[in-house]
Design brief:
Oligomer: single chain
Low-confidence stretches: 5-10, 282-298, 306-315
Shape: elongated
Strand order of the largest sheet: 1-2-3-4-5-6-7-8-9-10
Number of strands: 10
Helix content: 10-25%
Radius of gyration: 32 Å
Length: 315
């Protein structure tokens, strides 16, 4: 099986752990940081740490394969394999039942294997800086995925069933690909909160105002001449975005000032009416048509308290 070590296996527990590993694990953090160690492969002894290991970082090692025993790490939650030399995803990796975050960026992947769908606990996947020319359809079977980082690949389009298949997706990074048109399928991704399309070749953007959950949209370094229309809740990143955000802030300030003025008008009206009472007039001039003059005559203090309370409600 490609991507898996084929050398003679070393019995678990007999191979020494990498230098400093015991010290790291002694902290109780259940984390092992082995990045940048120039490892040729992951030591099998690490795979014997199933009960103690939740986070494993082996980035930037130039790894081309992983041991089959990797699937013994069934308590692993986070696995960082970015910036190695993997040409395919080892099957052993896809048998990690609790894996929720997987970092595969900066490798040599051209696709994802069918058994990748077994990673049903996966919530965050980073596969940026690979050689993906098409959106891997196996991802459509990961309904729990919330964050998908696919920047700096070679994508030109997206599958039409993306919105119905990946209903849990909240963040999608597609910067640095080869989109020449805005993928219209994204207009049906109503639950997206973050969308990044930097550094593509998109000339026109459609209105995104109907994407009510969108909070951040990045469109920088595209040939589009104007920012897309978005709701006032969306932060824009790109050429012309600063002006749009400034105009929005000014508009919000004007609306706030208008609301403050309107809230003061009822009080000013009451004070004006009170000051215009003649010498022979009583507070009965402020009574509504349903009030009885006898209420004031029987208990003037209680009547005045009720009036003040009503004024407070109006203001």
């Amino acid at each position: 099986m490609g991507g898996v070590c084929s050398a003679m296996p070393v019995p678990l527990g007999e191979e020494q752990l990498p230098e400093g590993a015991d010290e790291q694990l002694s902290t109780g953090d259940q984390t092992l940081e082995l990045s940048g160690r120039q490892l040729k492969t992951l030591p099998v002894s690490v795979c014997a740490l199933a009960e103690r290991l939740h986070k494993l970082y082996i980035s930037s090692n130039g790894l081309r394969e992983l041991p089959e025993e990797l699937n013994l790490l069934d308590n692993l939650r986070i696995l960082a394999l970015d910036f190695n030399k993997l040409e395919e995803v080892p099957e052993a990796l896809c048998h990690l039942p609790r894996l929720s975050r997987l970092y595969l960026g900066g490798n040599r992947l051209q696709d994802l294997p069918p058994y990748f769908e077994q990673l049903q606990s996966l919530r965050c996947l980073w596969i940026e800086k690979n050689y993906l020319q098409q959106f891997p359809r196996v991802l459509l079977r990961l309904r729990g995925l919330k964050s998908l980082q696919m920047g700096d690949n070679r994508l030109r389009g997206l599958p039409q069933d993306l919105p119905t298949a990946m209903t849990g997706l909240r963040g999608l990074w597609l910067y640095g690909n080869r989109f020449e048109e805005f993928p219209l399928v994204l207009l049906r991704m109503s639950l997206l909160e973050i969308l990044d399309l930097d550094r593509n070749k998109i000339v026109n953007f459609p209105s995104l105002c109907h994407l009510e959950n969108l909070r951040l949209f990045s469109f920088d370094h595209n040939p589009a001449k104007a920012p897309p229309a978005v709701s006032d809740k969306v932060t824009l990143v790109g050429e012309g975005a600063q002006e749009v955000m400034a105009e929005r802030a000014e508009k919000e300030q004007r609306l706030k000032e208008e609301e403050e003025l309107q809230s003061q008008e009822p009080l000013h009206s009451i004070l004006k009416n009170s000051s215009s009472l003649g010498a022979g007039e009583s507070f009965s001039a402020l009574d509504g048509p349903d009030n009885d003059m006898a209420d004031f005559e029987e208990d003037p203090e209680e009547f005045e308290e009720e009036l003040n309370f009503e004024d407070d409600e109006e203001t």
